[in-house]
Write a structure and sequence with these properties.
The protein is α/β, with parallel strands linked by helices and about 300 residues long. Helix content is about 45%, strand content about 20%.
């Protein structure tokens, strides 16, 4: 059997009750030339039984003995992927039956050698609306991602060989933004306004404070890395986005109890662009106990669902 067109990588952890739906959405694709790589990231529930219940040779299964984080699991999938194109699928989400066919049609007709990534919109199922807010259909470059022109959730399918030139997913964070930024330094993406990915965000579980703090630590690292590498470029391209990025970094630093670092980030944000919100946060930093302020920030983030539960 030859190499498949698509390798769909699904990292999963303790979501056996949701995983079956995700798997079925792949097996029900109109375009059948794919492999589904499922990486069990140390689950303690019935995940393995759910995967083994599917007798389909296109399903490839790996298991970590301990939980190592979603990007570690995705990297396992990426290292074993044999398809020409890579797509990610979260264990609580699904693909439209048309998803792979539409992507294959695009890449089959694409003649622009710089375009190695396709971005499509997502449907927020519970809210019954598209999640992504973006420019019109067309080419997406590094500046679009840096300046915040892509907002919300999207589905990304990328040429595997081009992706591997930029390394693997950073395992200190949960998402792929750092890798996508690196990718767009060399190649372009193309956006089509079709909701081919269905995102489910409500599972009846509350995010714990410890989980929220861990997510804040990962976000702080991700923002710091992005600003270290792209800060000067972002400042030239879009001062508003540059200022906002430092303001958000300060919030994450507050959650981590890092008063001095947060104050420094706020000063950088204010020098780039004045903001009453940044002034208010800075005033609270000066006047309030950092432990109390950190708890307030965590509560606010949970209320506004600032972080994904993944």
């Amino acid at each position: 059997m030859g190499k498949p067109s698509f390798s769909i990588i699904c990292a999963t952890y303790n979501r056996s009750s949701l995983l079956k739906r995700a798997i079925m959405s792949v097996l029900n694709q109109q375009f059948k030339d794919f492999e589904l790589i499922i990486v069990n990231d140390g689950s303690t529930d019935e995940t393995e039984g759910v995967v083994r219940s599917f007798k389909d040779r296109r399903i490839v299964y790996f298991k970590n003995e301990t939980n190592r984080g979603p990007n570690h699991a995705r990297n396992i999938g990426l290292k074993h992927a044999s398809g020409r194109y890579i797509a990610l699928l979260d264990d609580d989400d699904t693909l439209s039956p048309l998803a792979l066919r539409k992507v294959n049609d695009f890449f089959s007709s694409n003649t622009n050698e710089r375009i190695k990534m396709l971005i499509t919109n997502c449907l927020n199922v519970e809210a019954n609306r598209t999640s992504g807010r973006i420019l019109e259909e067309g080419i997406i470059r590094l500046s679009h991602l840096l300046c915040g022109k892509l907002k919300g959730d999207y589905w990304i399918v990328v040429d595997k060989d081009a992706l591997l030139q930029n390394g693997l997913f950073n395992e200190r964070v949960t998402g792929g933004r750092l890798l996508w930024l690196s990718f767009l330094e060399k190649y372009d993406a193309y956006y089509i306004p079709l909701a081919l990915y269905l995102a489910y965000r409500k599972h009846g579980k509350r995010i714990t404070n410890s989980k929220m703090c861990l997510n804040a630590q990962r976000a702080e690292f991700e923002f710091s890395e992005e600003l270290f590498k792209y800060g000067k470029q972002l400042k030239k391209l879009c001062k508003t986005a540059y200022s906002r990025k430092y303001l958000e970094l300060a919030i994450f630093q507050i959650v981590g109890g890092k008063r001095e670092e947060a104050m420094s980030s706020l000063f950088v944000s204010l020098r780039a662009k004045f903001s009453f919100f940044a002034i208010a946060v800075l005033s609270l930093l000066v006047l309030c106990n950092i432990v109390i302020l950190s708890k307030i920030a965590v509560t606010a983030m949970k209320h506004y669902q600032y972080f994904s539960a993944n």
